[in-house]
Amino acid sequence: MEKISVFLDDYRSAPDGYVLVETIDECIELLKKFKIEHLSLDHDLLDRTRNGFMLVQMMIKEKLFANRITVHSANSGAGKAMYNSLKQAQHDSIMPHSTILSLRPLPLKFFPPRVLQHYLEVQ
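The structure corresponding to this sequence follows.
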């Protein structure tokens, strides 16, 4: 199965080498079809009722995970809720303990070079 890296965001551009998806439905489809090396998630999306937290709940329910998951949402409260839900799933052995999970909020307009390094190292 082909490995890809996925960046869920409806505002920011994806780092080089990442597949950009703008909806949780697109993201779920890729999680089902590919082995995901790195999945980077935003919370606030154009469709306010189908956000990153809902995606995390679906991922946990359907046991769809990546080798690495980064929550990059600038919405600190929602980003922490997403991260904590994934951490709890890992603690409860729903998500593999080998999955590397990180919370790294990204600015909306400018990515400092050292922030992008996190994405470059993942591939």
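Residues 76-91 form the longest helix (16 residues).
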